[in-house]
Design goal:
Layout lengths: L4 H27 L26 E6 L2 E9 L2 E3 L2 E4 L3 E9 L4 E5 L5 E4 L5 E7 L3 E6 L12 E6 L1
Parallel strand pairs: 2-5, 4-10
Antiparallel strand pairs: 1-2, 2-3, 5-8, 6-7, 6-9, 9-10
Bound molecules: dinuclear copper ion.
Length: 155
């Protein structure tokens, strides 16, 4: 096969770029240990009510203006129903689903998580400004999906 010199140059450059990206990705994954989370926590979705900490869902103060919220998501609500924290509070959410895939999106924050049965989802957020933050389920989960919401009150 006869190939133009220009074509050879471009083939070499594009192959080089691909190899470069693969090396960068490999370096990040193996040397810098950057990668998707693994060994994430799991739970038997049938036994959520009997498994700590989900046997006692609710809000607990764990430090100076630091709170832990243990929450279960189910058709079609969030437990606990209402969360209230003071302004400036850092809240650590521990979430799981008791039935199907739900969403946990807190409007006007960066929180947007998928909550799957069998998995434990953890997110932390500091609420600097007082206000009411709407929490919605953004994964279609059935006939009552559109009413699945709650509120985080920051006083
Ligand atoms: Cu839960 Cu949509």
């Amino acid at each position: 096969m006869k190939m133009h010199f220009d074509e050879k140059i471009w083939l070499t450059i594009s192959f080089g770029i691909i190899m470069g990206f693969m090396l960068i990705t490999g370096y990040q994954a193996f040397a810098l240990n950057m990668g998707p989370p693994s060994h994430s926590e799991t739970i038997d979705p049938q036994k959520v009510d009997q498994t700590a900490p989900f046997d006692e869902p609710g809000i607990k103060q764990i430090g100076e203006n630091e709170y832990e919220v243990v929450m279960t998501l189910q058709l079609f609500n969030f437990t606990p129903m209402e969360i209230e924290v003071p302004a400036g509070a850092t809240v650590h959410f521990t979430l799981t689903s008791k039935d199907v895939i739900h969403g946990f999106q807190v409007v006007n924050t960066n929180i947007n998580a998928m909550v799957m049965p069998g998995h434990i989802q953890k997110i932390s957020q500091t609420f600097d400004q007082p206000g009411e933050f709407l929490v919605i389920c953004n994964e279609y989960c059935g006939a009552g999906h559109q009413v699945m919401s709650t509120v985080i009150k920051v006083k």
